[in-house]
Specification:
The chain is built from eight helices and eight strands, in the order E-H-E-H-E-H-E-H-E-E-H-E-H-E-H-H. With 219 residues, the protein is α/β, with parallel strands linked by helices. The protein has a single domain, classed as Aldolase class I (TIM Barrel). It has an eight-stranded parallel beta sheet with strand order 1-8-7-6-5-4-3-2. Strand 2, helix 2 and strand 3 form a beta-alpha-beta unit.
């Protein structure tokens, strides 16, 4: 039986209490912390950078699952590795050479993730599946939290899971965007093993993070 991991997105946290919010996530049973990094260019929003991540790194031992939505991404990989990222996920559209960027992340002894937007084809990453640790499938177009899950993404998750099984590979399939109690089971049944969720974890059940994480994990 595969282990289901929950990676809460701090994009939905109270940024004025970010340290305490991360402690709440740790106490609530989170497996890792999902950090959305946006540059206002690759996606239409701005969030946090390496100095904030470095400060947050001192607060928890949970792995930092850092999703870089920045372009160009290659020259900033070192900054996020040095800041304390454990998993660094990049978009193929944001680098001139995906293979070089994957190797660059590995050179810092970090896990490698590649993210696919809803309109990004699986073909872009098929040649790299044996070199990476995680594929992040976006079930919304990245940029803002609180968006509605796109059900057509289920097929992409299933297709990727079938490729994974056919080739006997062991990367994780992570899904991010509009994940809630009503669609989590469909996503997990399709082949995902990591769920990213922000609004549901921080807002549902009057903000009972522990209950929300448990509910998602056992969907």
């Amino acid at each position: 039986m595969k282990k289901i991991k929950i990676s809460p997105s701090i994009l939905s946290a109270n940024f004025s209490e970010l340290g305490n919010e991360i402690k709440r996530l740790e106490q609530g049973g989170a497996d890792m912390i999902h950090v959305d990094v946006m540059d206002g260019h690759f996606v239409p929003n701005l969030t946090i950078g390496p100095p904030v991540i470095k400060n947050l790194r001192e607060i928890t031992k949970l792995p930092f699952d850092v999703h870089l939505m920045i372009d160009p991404v290659h020259k900033y990989i070192k900054d996020y590795a040095d800041a304390g990222a454990d998993i660094i996920t990049i978009h193929p559209e944001a680098t001139e050479n995906l293979s070089e960027s994957i190797n660059h992340i590995k050179s810092f002894k970090k896990k490698v993730g590649v993210s696919l937007n809803p309109n990004t084809e699986l073909n872009l990453v098929l040649d790299y599946l044996d070199k990476i640790d995680l594929i992040l499938i976006m079930s919304v177009y990245p940029g803002f939290g609180g968006q509605k899950f796109m059900p057509e993404i289920i097929k992409k998750i299933k297709d990727l899971d079938n490729i994974k099984k056919d080739k006997n590979l062991n990367f994780d399939i992570e899904v991010d965007g509009g994940i809630n109690f009503s669609n989590a089971k469909k996503v997990l049944d399709a082949g995902a093993s990591i769920l990213v969720s922000g609004t549901t974890i921080f807002k549902e059940n009057n903000g009972d993070i522990e209950k929300n994480i448990k509910t998602l994990r056992t969907a």
